[in-house]
Inverse folding.
């Protein structure tokens, strides 16, 4: 059975207790407002295409930063100022997966986006947000190497 | 960008400027409606007085793949305080992609007092105009809608198949990669929704966004649009056109352009689009 990173599991439990749609939206908006783009020391525009999230119309980028303990810290850029959901997703992924065991990060399912945003996402939006998850997991797999 | 009235549109009254909207914020005969792809945008901030119409919760049937029924539409209009003579003005993200989708659905029920704000949310924000987080409440109205008309501006698959066999005009508004079949799904995420890639035979490819100016989301002038749709891909306004994309949202935008801005009299939106056609057994596919 796949084990979710602890911080992500805790966040999803919190979100799961927020059944009211408006409350959940407010929570996600508060999270989106905390978004900070990738520090210039890690990357600056124009960002390299290998860090660009495929199929994300919010022009999101993911940048992995190696930690001394072998884990990764994840930084994000969202070039579309209207990409509020992408910003919220970036904060959630950055907060809950940075420093988490790579084996756990590598196996996160893109379907986690539906636990966060609900099923009422357009296909395009789903693909973009899922792409962010897929890319983060991909960086973890690459870091793990063949044994991963 | 020139004034809307000077751009040569067939029905320039279908479009209003951000200036016009700013002047009508307190006009009780006007209801602003924001429709977005991103569910967090309206709650984040919106034009004062605007209500939200969400494409999944408000416009789609919750169970079957179809739009809302007459009674649901009446309930929606009552809830957002719209009467049969209220002018609804749509705007939203993605250069009004979702706003024109909502506009098109409203036309299925014959609410013709409808307009789109040119440039959508992007232009309003860029101009630094006022926005708010206050969600307005309007007195509930008694709205009686006509039965949904699926015969005039909507196409189902049997009509599309007959149209293909008759060599009718089709416009595929997806990206060139989707049109060619090169892109069926993104890596590691095989959930795009179609088993086959390609396009409906005979369809011309005009990505929907070619109709707008990227810098502010406004629609291009009529002569520029004619150059794209008529001169470049050869669509004949005197003949029927069927537009499609993946689920019918992007093609609503093109439907708006062809009917309202260029005056094509007979354009249908095939909302089954590629998620239906690309999964159908034994229908022709071209790559």
């Amino acid at each position: 059975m796949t084990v979710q990173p602890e911080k992500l599991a805790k966040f999803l439990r919190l979100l799961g207790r927020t059944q009211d749609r408006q409350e959940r939206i407010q929570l996600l908006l508060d999270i989106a407002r905390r978004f900070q783009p990738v520090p210039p020391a890690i990357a600056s525009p124009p960002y390299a295409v290998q860090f660009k999230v495929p199929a994300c119309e919010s022009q999101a980028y993911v940048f992995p930063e190696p930690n001394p303990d072998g884990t990764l810290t994840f930084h994000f850029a969202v070039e579309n100022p209207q990409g509020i959901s992408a910003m919220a997703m970036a904060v959630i992924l950055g907060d809950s997966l940075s420093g988490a065991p790579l084996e756990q990060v590598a196996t996160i399912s893109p379907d986690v986006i539906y636990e966060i945003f609900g099923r009422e996402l357009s296909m395009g939006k789903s693909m973009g947000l899922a792409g962010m998850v897929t890319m983060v997991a991909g960086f973890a797999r690459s870091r793990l190497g063949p044994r991963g | 960008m020139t004034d809307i009235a000077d751009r040569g549109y067939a029905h320039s009254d279908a479009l209003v400027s951000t200036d016009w909207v700013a002047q009508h914020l307190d006009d009780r005969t006007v209801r602003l409606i924001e429709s977005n792809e991103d569910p967090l945008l309206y709650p984040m901030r919106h034009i004062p007085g605007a209500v939200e119409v969400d494409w999944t919760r408000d416009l789609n049937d919750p169970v079957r793949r179809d739009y809302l029924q007459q009674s649901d539409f009446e309930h929606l209009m009552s809830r957002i305080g719209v009467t049969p003579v209220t002018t609804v003005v749509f705007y939203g993200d993605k250069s009004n992609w979702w706003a024109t989708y909502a506009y098109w659905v409203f036309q299925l029920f014959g609410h013709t007092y409808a307009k789109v704000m040119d440039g959508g949310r992007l232009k309003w924000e860029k101009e630094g105009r006022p926005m708010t987080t206050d969600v307005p409440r309007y007195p509930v109205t008694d709205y009686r809608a006509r039965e949904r008309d699926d015969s005039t501006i909507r196409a189902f698959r049997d009509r599309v198949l007959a149209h293909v066999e008759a060599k009718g005009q089709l416009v595929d508004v997806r990206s060139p990669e989707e049109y060619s079949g090169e892109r069926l799904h993104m890596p590691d995420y095989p959930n795009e929704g179609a088993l086959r890639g390609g396009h409906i035979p005979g369809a011309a490819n005009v990505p929907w966004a070619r109709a707008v100016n990227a810098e502010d989301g406004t629609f291009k002038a009529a002569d520029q649009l004619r150059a794209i749709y008529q001169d470049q891909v050869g669509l004949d306004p005197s003949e029927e056109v069927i537009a499609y994309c993946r689920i019918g949202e992007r093609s609503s935008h093109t439907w708006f352009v062809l009917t309202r801005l260029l005056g094509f009299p007979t354009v249908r939106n095939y909302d089954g689009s590629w998620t239906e056609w690309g999964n159908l057994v034994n229908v022709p596919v071209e790559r």
